[in-house]
Amino acid sequence: MMKKLMAVLCSLCLMAAMLTGCGGKDTETPTEGNGSEAGSDTMIALITMDSIDQHWVTLNEGAQKAAGELGVTVQFMAPNTKDDAQQIECVNNAVSAGAKAIIVAANGPDAISSALKEASDAGVKIVYVDSPANVPAEATFSTDNKAAGQTAGEEMKKALAENNVTSGTIGIINVNAATDSCVMREEGFRAAFEGTDFELLETQYGEGDAAKSQSIAENYITQGVVGIFGCNEGSTTGAGNAIKASGNVSVIGVGFDKSDAILGLIDGGFLRCTMAQNPDVMGYEGVQAAVKAINGESLGGAVTDTGVSVLAKEGGAQSEATDTAASKEWKIALITMDSIDQHWVTLNEGAQAKADELGVSVTFMSPNTKDDAQQIECVNNAVAGGYDAIMVAANGPDAISSALNEASAAGVKIVYVDSPANVAAEATFSTDNKAAGQTAGEEMKKALEDQGVTSGTIGIINVNAATDSCVMREEGFRAAFEGTGFELLETQYGEGDAAKSQSIAENYITQGVVGIFGCNEGSTTGAGNAIKASGNADIIGVGFDKSDAIQGLIGDGYLLCTMAQNPDVMGSMGVEACVKALEGESLGGKVADTGVSVLTK
């Protein structure tokens, strides 16, 4: 009876959305044929695992923001609890009501696959957020959950070491055995403890319910565990509440997701930390992708890592608040390495959008080319111009440090985006470049193996020997080839210029290289253009950053793939951090990984 009532409610909500979203055409049947361009009569269904967890509420907020900007209707229709049958009913109801796209966080890889396949067959575009199913989709926006789970494990190990605890049992509370995102978190967490003297107990499942999870955690505590890991918001809240009720704060609680309850438990010392995702980014980018797909654009099933950061009591990160308008129109200078690369243009777009939200001004004041003297001049101009904060992507760790020290001494707040300098800052928002570089190397190795190539020379094109982000990418790339039969040639520097990088790549090709790695947008574009000009598509080109030129080279087969960052996220989070610092909040110099994904043909 409850399921039937839920189906009726979902259907009524959808029909109401259609009536309000069709520009007054309250008696018109929704148009079929979901390939038509998105407009004011376009309805997109957002179906998450439940409608209660703050994670999903925040995801919906990001989706609604994008919907408002793009002039479409997004109907948030989720069960009030995690239930496969209810989620299937919502999918079916979305199709019946004429949704042109469904954005979904699947309960499991197979639980709702049949319903999603039927929706896809009916022409409905599918986009995944947070957790995918085993049905092809236009795109997926989620966290690299295995890596984040391993980070959670490392944080617990660190806390136990601080308590001089080197062995003992650890409990794990998960949602269920099917939800892919949470299963991968657990897998990563367990991997962190391999080779240690800790015993990880059999996982217990609390269905994401805080009360059930608390009971499980209480049983773990009576068994004498030294730590408890919660795999989602409800699991984490339950674990923290159990530790609080026991009074035994020596039990280390580590979890996932961000909510007021979790932040309060961290602040009270009952949880060590939580892995905070970016659900608003998932929702926002999910809607953007859905609209692109409706408009006929092919997204190629791209998977985008929307990033994660560790929120702990240390440094005040646990007290992050939701976005509110600034108390005054603070002046923020955004200084990137240049003003030409699409990477920096996109970063500026993210910064401007957040500035509009918060009621502050951001001035994009960057050199037209990568030049230390010009970047120093921009920093000095920002100070002289009375700017309150500087967001900067430093050319190198030391090149502009003196200017930044003077700015900081003058009371200007410093926030790094993409690439930091060796000067203390409020916060840094960047990619884990070494890890991403190693991923690039693994992708090239795989492609070479597919060709039967197990040895040969590989060229590397970098920006310069000082830009920290690019240096770390190269370091990670080289690490991927350690112990192989490949020889990585001496790095050549193209200053991020596509034409110079193409000349370098052409020289590499004349030397008979089997692969070329470009460390940034210009380097990658140059490498792809050189491979194209040579006519030798057997040379494996792998690079960094996303631009129309790079995607075109991938589409034509002249580049294998590129590591796509999230510069818009860097810009948005950077502005938010500037405002918080200017409003008196201590950010403790936190470093947040804004994620990366592999874009291929």
Oligomer designation = single chain
Tally the beta strands.
26
Q: Roughly how many Å is the radius of gyration?
A: 25 Å
Q: Structural class, from helix and strand content?
A: alpha/beta
Number of continuous helical runs: 19
Strand content: 15-25%
Proportion in helices = 40-55%
List low-confidence stretches. Answer: 1-36, 314-323
Largest sheet: 7 strands, mixed
Q: What is the typical, i.e. mean, pLDDT? A: 88
Q: N- to C-terminal separation?
A: 47 Å
Shape: globular
What is the gist of this entry?
By secondary structure, the protein is α/β, with parallel strands linked by helices.
What distinguishing features does this structure have?
601 residues, globular, 20% strand, disordered N terminus, 44% helix, single chain, 7-stranded mixed sheet, alpha/beta
